[in-house]
Amino acid sequence: MDSCNIVLAGVGGLGILLAAEIIGTAAVKEGYNVRVSELHGMAQRGGAVVSHVRIGEKALAPTVLEGTADAIVSLEPMEALRNIKFATPKTIVLVNTKPFKISGTKYPEVNVLLEQLRNFTKNTILIDAAALAEKAGTGITQNVVMMGALAAVKRLPMKVETLKEALRELVPTKYLNINMKAFELGYDYVKASK
């Protein structure tokens, strides 16, 4: 495989860095060359956070070039739109439809944001990761719901079981069952929507 380029976008506190680490760890387990970079906005909860994961023999630089992402995974609608520059019409864009709103600030209409995304690519999959995470047992597993969704769209070269193995290594034991359930719910949601 030459390269696989994934952009993970969200805000501080939503687990973007863990999601990138899961993908990177799984890639290493299967013997792939991998580069993971983290681009932080404000160093606090609510600031923009973006991680790039590049997998494959041609993944020499740590960041994804604009217009070359195979998938964009966004834990927040506005961050999906902010990072659409990495997409092509063939890129799969997975979007958590629940906005991260900071009190005292105005947030655009979610439907308008999602329509703008769909105008760019029809390969947009909308996921209520917050509801699926709550179904798993806690809302803080939205990032793992989205990892399950990413596994289901088959843009990663790694096996689903290897991603789960990485998840088992990286998540503390007391939270593992909830996270595994969140992964499965995200995976099953996308599989059922195809």
Give the SSE map.
Elements: E1 4-11, H1 16-29, E2 34-40, E3 48-55, E4 71-74, H2 77-82, E5 92-96, H3 110-120, E6 124-127, H4 129-136, H5 142-152, H6 160-170, H7 173-193
Parallel strand pairs: 1-4, 4-5, 5-6
Antiparallel strand pairs: 1-3, 2-3
Helix pairs in contact: 1-5, 1-6, 4-5, 4-7, 5-7
Explain the overall architecture.
There is one protein chain. With 194 residues, this protein is of the alpha/beta class. The chain has one domain: Pyruvate-ferredoxin oxidoreductase, PFOR, domain III (Pyruvate-ferredoxin Oxidoreductase, domain 3), CATH 3.40.920.10. Helix content is 42%, strand content 19%. It contains 7 helices and 6 strands; from the N terminus they run βαβββαβαβαααα. The chain has a 6-stranded mixed sheet, with helices on both faces. β4 (71-74), α2 and β5 (92-96) form a beta-alpha-beta unit. The longest helix is centred in the last third of the chain and has 21 residues, at 173-193. It starts with a strand and ends with a helix.
TL;DR of this structure?
The chain is an alpha/beta fold and 194 residues long.
- Structural class determined from secondary elements: alpha/beta
Q: Which CATH architecture is right?
A: 3-Layer(aba) Sandwich
Q: Strand percentage, roughly?
A: 15-25%
Strand order of the largest sheet: 2-3-1-4-5-6
Number of strands: 6
Determine the N-to-C terminus distance: 25 Å
Number of helices: 7
Largest sheet: 6 strands, mixed
The CATH superfamily name is Pyruvate-ferredoxin oxidoreductase, PFOR, domain III
Based on CA atoms alone, the radius of gyration comes out at 15 Å
Average predicted confidence as pLDDT: 92
Find the CATH topology. Pyruvate-ferredoxin Oxidoreductase, domain 3
Number of domains: 1
**Percent range of helical residues:** 40-55%
What spatial form do the alpha-carbon principal axes imply? Answer: globular
CATH class identity: Alpha Beta
